[in-house]
Amino acid sequence: MTPIATPVLTHKLRHMFALLDTDRDGYLTAADLPAAADRMAAALPAGQEKAERLRTALGRIWEAHLRPMTGDGTGRLGLAAYERGVREAVATAPAAFLTAVHEAAAAWLALCDADGNGRIVLDEYLRMGEALGGIAREDMEDAFGRLDRSGDGGLDPVDVHAAVIEFFTSDDPEAAGNWLYGPL
C-alpha cells in the first residue's frame, strides 16, 4: 500500500526530482544521477575521489531503487512514477531505501566538506547552494540554521542522518530535515 501523498512530502519529492533531473527533460535516467554528482563536484573545491563516492552512491540508488520504478523498459522515470515509487520504497522497505539515501547524503557531506573535518560549516553549505543552482544566500543561511540542531555552527553526520530521515518521511512542514537540499 502506497502512503498517502501529503502536500509536504509531495513538494519535497518534486524538489528532489528537479535537483536530480540534470538535463531538465522531465525524466530521471541512469545518466542524470552521475551528472548531478559532476555538477556538484564542478562547483565545489573537492577532489575527484570525493565526487566518485557520490557518483557511486547515486548509481546504487538508481540501480536498486529508481530503475525498477521505470517499469516500462525505457529506463526513464517520470515525476509521477518517481513520487509513487519513493513513497512505496519508504513504506515497504524503509531501512534499505533510507540507508541508500543516507549513503548518498554522507558522500554529499564529504564533497561539501572542503577542509575535511567531517562537518559542513556555513560557508561550505553556501557553496553547495551555489552548486545546486544559485540559491539565494539568505535562503541557504536559513536552511543551515534549521539543520544545525545543536547550534554548534556545523552539520555533522548525525545532523545529516536525521535530516535525511525527515526529508523522506516527515509530513511536518516545520521539520528541519525539509531543508537538507536548500529551501523548498
List the SSEs and their pairings.
Blueprint: H1 7-20, E1 27-28, H2 32-43, H3 48-70, E2 77-78, H4 79-92, H5 94-112, E3 120-121, H6 122-131, H7 137-147, E4 154-155, H8 157-169
Antiparallel strand pairs: 1-2, 3-4
Helix pairs in contact: 1-4, 2-3, 2-6, 3-4, 3-5, 4-5, 5-8, 6-7
Short description:
The chain has 184 residues and is mainly alpha-helical. It has helices spanning 7-20, 32-43, 48-70, 79-92, 94-112, 122-131, 137-147, 157-169, and strands at residues 27-28, 77-78, 120-121, 154-155. It has a two-stranded antiparallel sheet with strand order 1-2.
What's the story with the biggest beta sheet? 2 strands, antiparallel
Q: Can you give the mean pLDDT?
A: 87
Question: In which order are the strands of the major sheet placed?
Answer: 1-2
Dominant shape: globular
Cα Rg: 15 Å
Tally of contiguous helical segments: 8
List the uncertain runs: none
Beta strand % = under 5%
Ends apart, CA distance between termini:
27 Å
Number of strands: 4
What class would the helix/strand composition place it in? mainly alpha
In helices, the fraction of residues equals 55-70%
The arrangement of helices and strands along the chain is HEHHEHHEHHEH
Question: What can you tell me about this protein's structure?
Answer:
With 184 residues, the protein is mainly alpha-helical. It is built from eight helices and four strands, in the order H-E-H-H-E-H-H-E-H-H-E-H. The chain has helices spanning 7-20, 32-43, 48-70, 79-92, 94-112, 122-131, 137-147, 157-169; strands spanning 27-28, 77-78, 120-121, 154-155. A two-stranded antiparallel ribbon has the order 1-2. A two-stranded antiparallel sheet has the order 3-4. Helix 1 crosses helix 4. The longest helix is centred in the N-terminal third of the chain and has 23 residues, at 48-70. The model has no long low-confidence stretch (mean pLDDT 87).
